[in-house]
């Protein structure tokens, strides 16, 4: 893919930014350099290489779920300014 001035101007429009002519030329060169580098990476032989999501081995540490919250409703409602029938009472927000 070739990066040209029209593409950079289109990206400006998408990003809702304005670049000066010097910034536009620098952006065009930088984007072209990035695409050239990606093309270089695409030439690498990756046959037999497993995909990895991390650069070092990592594994999920799984544990069994255990219910440990033994809070009683009475204890929770002790700190409420207003409560009724085991529920918090809050100001009405919708008419």
CATH topology-level fold name of one domain: Histone, subunit A
Unreliable segments (pLDDT under 50, ≥5 consecutive)? none
Question: Which structural class fits the helix and strand makeup?
Answer: mainly alpha
Quaternary structure type: single chain
The tally of helices reads 3
Strand content: under 5%
CATH architecture of one domain: Orthogonal Bundle
Instruction: Give me the count of strands.
Output: 2
Supply the CATH class of one domain.
Mainly Alpha
Could you walk me through the main structural features you see in this protein, from its secondary elements to its overall organization?
- With 95 residues, the chain is mainly alpha-helical.
- The chain has a domain at 5-42: Histone, subunit A.
- It is built from three helices and two strands; from the N terminus they run αααββ.
- The chain has helices spanning 5-15, 21-42, 73-77, and strands at 83-84, 87-88.
- Strands 1-2 form a two-stranded antiparallel ribbon.
- α1 crosses α2.
- The longest helix is centred in the first third of the chain and has 22 residues, at 21-42.
- The protein is elongated and about 70 Å long.
SSE order and pairing:
Layout: H1 5-15, H2 21-42, H3 73-77, E1 83-84, E2 87-88
Antiparallel strand pairs: 1-2
Helix pairs in contact: 1-2
Compact summary:
The protein has 95 residues and is mainly alpha-helical. It contains three helices and two strands, in the order αααββ.
């Amino acid at each position: 893919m070739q990066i040209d001035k029209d593409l950079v101007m289109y990206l400006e429009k998408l990003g809702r930014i304005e670049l000066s002519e010097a910034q536009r030329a620098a952006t065009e060169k930088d984007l072209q350099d990035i695409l050239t580098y990606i093309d270089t990476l695409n030439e690498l032989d990756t046959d037999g290489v497993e995909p990895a999501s991390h650069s070092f081995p990592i594994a999920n540490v799984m544990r069994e779920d255990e219910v440990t919250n033994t809070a009683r409703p009475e204890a929770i409602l002790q700190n409420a300014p207003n409560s009724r029938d085991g529920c918090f009472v809050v100001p009405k927000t919708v008419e």
